[in-house]
């Protein structure tokens, strides 16, 4: 039988003990364990039978603001994380990618607690409780989050310990338990501890002169139970050992102490094995890993910013790591009295405690992908496609002057976007470049091109959204670099995040000035363009160029709302125009004309948008919603949403395109956008939606939407009770949207 890794939380003095459940698991095959782990649907919230009474009412008697018609936003978010976790169980994914999905789930849950759970706790702490459209009080939501999250975390570690680790061991990738270290391995680890860990680790004994250390958000720590008196006669019994962030959480053993394959040990195992060396002369009774999650949402008060948003943000960034406590993860064999002491120290309740059956912070297991060279256990690589005319043209400007181009990443290359800026930086005919940046990186190819353009004397103006969550420091560095190069940098609008993705290049061509435009649904980040599905649109359409110019005028200067002709612009026109187009489909349906709506976004929560879709469904409009993440709309309710289907696609790539399709009485309207169907996008951000006017391109978008609607392999269908069910294809009828797109677009000349 393949060897399974030890729990990182194993106590040095009791490693020989065997748990009865673990022994039973080891007697089962991986396949048998996998059958046990078939996911049971998790409803968004307990369904009260009285809630179903709404289906007994006449449509005209139904109040579309009724809380029964809305799922809770946070619980829907948690459901998305559950769907990500389930990818680790999908044998269609290579085993290292299944491990990657476990890591992504861990990272997603971190952010969920740092932002969403922290926000609910803050509401309660400051007496600002506010029920959402679903009518649930934040206290009730927190309790349901705790119930579901505990189940998901237990499932996560069961999948890791009983499925993924054994699968990796079958491929000679092993995580070696210290209880089975050979003499050579133990000697090598001892030297590693002496040379690399001991010199930089700083244990803190707890006594009146050594108060509990201030632990930063998500840092890796150990609580150590001690016995005896130290050299000063102190006898307190507990110490904290913070693991320096500079130390790798996984250490690969050299080949000369192993018998083939890739063999790794956890840092926690190394520290556990040598904890006594941190406290010479004391007896170590137990060593237990733990991790504290804090509120990490930046709250920059717009009234106190004055004229220096960057300065205010830098100040706030310093305190991000020490927000209020929201979650404690700790080894599941930690004694109760120590757990209680830590909960009291961090002012947390029992529902905030997560006992961990393995290494805390599984996202750090991503290091495995770099430590082992096993491309055979990962998705096969592919070459992104590039349209023939774009590839063979004499330059990006010549190509775009001839026609519009629509690219879908990662199946098609992101390089034309970078090339467009790089050519503009060098082209003597280009006189000005304007761009919005949300997440891109201070040293990215996009940033390099903008710096070069500024140094070459172009008028470069960049709108950087400093408050892109968790990228604030990177964006501050980018702003400084661009300013040093001579670019004009502005930070958008204080109370409205700039989320629109726009490039405007002004080029002198003869006596005229021509505007070249890029509009996108995703970020200007080349790495994300290989992992996220997003559209890029390249055009020199005069009216779209004029519209983009006007949007930049509003962002960089001060003016009244400027009218735009073709773009939909949040927070001014986007929401209302979407509502108009939905209502028009409803009117067409009532008149007996065919009506159809397809919306593909990451999340749908805006109440007026949901209510408009309900009304369209009541009018007979056939509506398909492809919502990757949060969806508060409840489908399948008789008399309200029986014409609405909702699906979520989770696969190799993160679905990120935003598409709004309306049949429009046989003259389809297709808009692509940076905006999701959320209140923050439609009402509190600067966003744009842009039309795809070319018939061939709009038909192509519709075809690609149909791929998602026909997906029966990676498609999760939202039920009226709030649970999601994975589509089950018939044998031999497997259809996967991402695979179909790859076949159509990747490395494909057109």
From TrEMBL:
<protein>
    <recommendedName>
        <fullName>Polyphosphate kinase</fullName>
        <ecNumber>2.7.4.1</ecNumber>
    </recommendedName>
</protein>
<dbReference type="GO" id="GO:0005524">
    <property type="term" value="F:ATP binding"/>
</dbReference>
<dbReference type="InterPro" id="IPR036832">
    <property type="entry name" value="PPK_N_dom_sf"/>
</dbReference>
<keyword id="KW-0479">Metal-binding</keyword>
<keyword id="KW-0597">Phosphoprotein</keyword>
<feature type="domain" description="Polyphosphate kinase middle">
    <location>
        <begin position="184"/>
        <end position="367"/>
    </location>
</feature>
<feature type="domain" description="Polyphosphate kinase C-terminal">
    <location>
        <begin position="396"/>
        <end position="560"/>
    </location>
</feature>
<dbReference type="InterPro" id="IPR003414">
    <property type="entry name" value="PP_kinase"/>
</dbReference>
<dbReference type="InterPro" id="IPR025198">
    <property type="entry name" value="PPK_N_dom"/>
</dbReference>
<dbReference type="Pfam" id="PF17941">
    <property type="entry name" value="PP_kinase_C_1"/>
</dbReference>
<comment type="function">
    <text>Catalyzes the reversible transfer of the terminal phosphate of ATP to form a long-chain polyphosphate (polyP).</text>
</comment>
<feature type="domain" description="Polyphosphate kinase C-terminal">
    <location>
        <begin position="567"/>
        <end position="737"/>
    </location>
</feature>
<dbReference type="GO" id="GO:0046872">
    <property type="term" value="F:metal ion binding"/>
</dbReference>
<dbReference type="Pfam" id="PF02503">
    <property type="entry name" value="PP_kinase"/>
</dbReference>
<dbReference type="Pfam" id="PF13089">
    <property type="entry name" value="PP_kinase_N"/>
</dbReference>
<feature type="active site" description="Phosphohistidine intermediate">
    <location>
        <position position="499"/>
    </location>
</feature>
<dbReference type="GO" id="GO:0009358">
    <property type="term" value="C:polyphosphate kinase complex"/>
</dbReference>
<dbReference type="GO" id="GO:0008976">
    <property type="term" value="F:polyphosphate kinase activity"/>
</dbReference>
<keyword id="KW-0808">Transferase</keyword>
<dbReference type="InterPro" id="IPR036830">
    <property type="entry name" value="PP_kinase_middle_dom_sf"/>
</dbReference>
<feature type="binding site">
    <location>
        <position position="628"/>
    </location>
    <ligand>
        <name>ATP</name>
    </ligand>
</feature>
<dbReference type="GO" id="GO:0006799">
    <property type="term" value="P:polyphosphate biosynthetic process"/>
</dbReference>
<keyword id="KW-0067">ATP-binding</keyword>
<dbReference type="InterPro" id="IPR024953">
    <property type="entry name" value="PP_kinase_middle"/>
</dbReference>
<keyword id="KW-0418">Kinase</keyword>
<dbReference type="InterPro" id="IPR025200">
    <property type="entry name" value="PPK_C_dom2"/>
</dbReference>
<feature type="binding site">
    <location>
        <position position="469"/>
    </location>
    <ligand>
        <name>Mg(2+)</name>
    </ligand>
</feature>
<feature type="domain" description="Polyphosphate kinase N-terminal">
    <location>
        <begin position="70"/>
        <end position="175"/>
    </location>
</feature>
<feature type="binding site">
    <location>
        <position position="108"/>
    </location>
    <ligand>
        <name>ATP</name>
    </ligand>
</feature>
<feature type="binding site">
    <location>
        <position position="656"/>
    </location>
    <ligand>
        <name>ATP</name>
    </ligand>
</feature>
<feature type="binding site">
    <location>
        <position position="439"/>
    </location>
    <ligand>
        <name>Mg(2+)</name>
    </ligand>
</feature>
<keyword id="KW-0547">Nucleotide-binding</keyword>
<feature type="compositionally biased region" description="Polar residues">
    <location>
        <begin position="11"/>
        <end position="27"/>
    </location>
</feature>
<dbReference type="Pfam" id="PF13090">
    <property type="entry name" value="PP_kinase_C"/>
</dbReference>
<dbReference type="InterPro" id="IPR041108">
    <property type="entry name" value="PP_kinase_C_1"/>
</dbReference>
<feature type="region of interest" description="Disordered">
    <location>
        <begin position="1"/>
        <end position="31"/>
    </location>
</feature>
<comment type="similarity">
    <text>Belongs to the polyphosphate kinase 1 (PPK1) family.</text>
</comment>
<feature type="binding site">
    <location>
        <position position="532"/>
    </location>
    <ligand>
        <name>ATP</name>
    </ligand>
</feature>
<feature type="compositionally biased region" description="Basic and acidic residues">
    <location>
        <begin position="1"/>
        <end position="10"/>
    </location>
</feature>
<keyword id="KW-0460">Magnesium</keyword>
